[in-house]
Amino acid sequence: MKKSQLNSSVFLFILILSFSVSWAALSSILEVTPGSQDFVGCLQSHSNNVTSISQVTFTSRNASFLPTWQVHVQNTRFLKPSTRKPSVIVTPVDETLVRTTLFCAKKHGYELRIRSGGHDYEGLSYTADVPFVMLDFTNMRSIDVDVANRTAWVQAGAALGALYYAISQKTDTLYFPAGVCPTVGVGGYMGGGGYGNLLRKYGTAADNVLDARFMDVNGNILDRKSMGEDLFWAIRGGGASSFGIVLAWKLRLVAVPEKVTVFLLNKTLEQGATELFHKYQTVIPAIDRNLHMRTQVFGEYIGNTTKKTVRIMFEGIYQGTTDTLLPLLDEKFPELGVTREICEEIKMVQSTLVFWGLPSSTPTEILTNRSAIAKINNKSKSDYVRKPIPISGLKKIWRKLMENDQSAFLMINPFGGRIADFSETAIPYPHRAGVLLQILKSVNFNGQASDTTPVSLRRIAWIQSLDELLTPYVSKNPREAYFNYNDLDFGVGSDNYEEASLWGERYWKRDNFKKLIRIKAKVDPLNFFRHPQSIPVFSTPLSDM
């Protein structure tokens, strides 16, 4: 990527550089906290301009510190006084300051947390139990779409919504196969694999990464060729922040029709939802790859009564017209009852709005406005289903949902198709052939002051009991989980392979996890890039264990 393309804030940075102030003036602008002054001084001593550092560096005594930290805390359960915050926040506008931040963090004994969008489910990109510096890529979010070559270079701080909008401004017949939440940051998302409404047609997001700009622990900037295929393999689904700092990704754009067809319908238990979902488990993972049909499952009251039911929302997107979709469903899944009246033909970029719960008529510019997209406030867990859940099992799950206080939901995505064509070891993301469904289980803490109130604790206990109930019906040995839905309940031990395998094999399976450990030992042998579930470095080589 050209340097001008890599920096969306070049004009601002040049403007800043046109001013100069003394170190004393900097201190009045940027009041440093005890313990962070040496770090800020390190940044200043390696900068050509003191004012530029004051504009992009924040400590706890700076008025902008808390708003800068809070703005991209996407899971609001971490917005509480007890959450440990960074000693310093650095929001670089170029790669030089990224390198300097890395150097100074190492020199002064800070851990480094890297935030691109702030969607880490356990808050690991912006909180830690040790002194740390947060490298926030909010100022490095340029997007360069090349329609002729069907590629895009995207900086780490860009969000998926902005990527989709940028593509749509140049073409309606290309898109990128990623998720539907517009505020998810590109930098971390690809590092965990990434899936969305095109997974059955084109695989994961990481399957469609062509190259990267990546900074290693020594500050070297590498691309695919210079980093080598092992490291390039690792950062696409193996947790890129365990190995270094992703600066930008080069993405393969994929073909989509000018108009896609979307539909939504709800079915309750009284309307045969159990039998419909039972068939859904086998029909949809094997159906035409142009169709993706997500389901959301809720326990709720029937009208104004005290009786509860379960409602399943079927949300479909088809890469084609209504005229082609309806015969397909009439043949494969007529019981669902999709009709022409509930189908809408829209642009692909509009479908992202619809799947985020917005009307298709919403101006697509909203995808670039992170503050306009609601944040979450929840605890979530994931599972994969490899055998259809029997009706008896579904009824147990429904009963469990009806025990909840309406703070829970399940989001279920069908697999099969292109995502299953890749080997489990093609990239670290291993959830491939044989997977029927991915399940996201979630409880929210809405209406509660924190996630530690008695009501919140009951909700957490409920999701843990749901997890136990699902055990017979989900994958085994290991019980698979999605790394981008990280879950510290799995454990955080990493002193030896036995400890680390409790969570590592769930995310990546054994062969991939061991390969990730070997690569980590080569590229970051002192384990600078770490967090509670980062790829570990062992004192004894893995081959000797």
Automatic annotation (TrEMBL):
Keywords, ordered alphabetically: Disulfide bond, FAD, Flavoprotein, Glycoprotein, Signal
GO terms, molecular function: FAD binding; oxidoreductase activity
This protein's record includes keyword S-adenosyl-L-methionine: no
Named cofactor requirement(s): FAD
InterPro entries cross-referenced by the UniProt entry: BBE (IPR012951), FAD-bd_PCMH (IPR016166), FAD-bd_PCMH-like_sf (IPR036318), FAD-bd_PCMH_sub1 (IPR016167), FAD-bd_PCMH_sub2 (IPR016169), Oxid_FAD_bind_N (IPR006094)
Family matches, as Pfam families: BBE, FAD_binding_4
Annotated FAD-binding PCMH-type domain residues: 82-256
PROSITE patterns: FAD_PCMH
Signal peptide: 1-24
UniProt keyword Signal present: yes
Lineage top rank: taxon: Eukaryota
PANTHER family from the UniProt entry: OS08G0158400 PROTEIN
Family: Belongs to the oxygen-dependent FAD-linked oxidoreductase family.
Full protein name: FAD-binding PCMH-type domain-containing protein
Organism: Lactuca sativa (Garden lettuce)
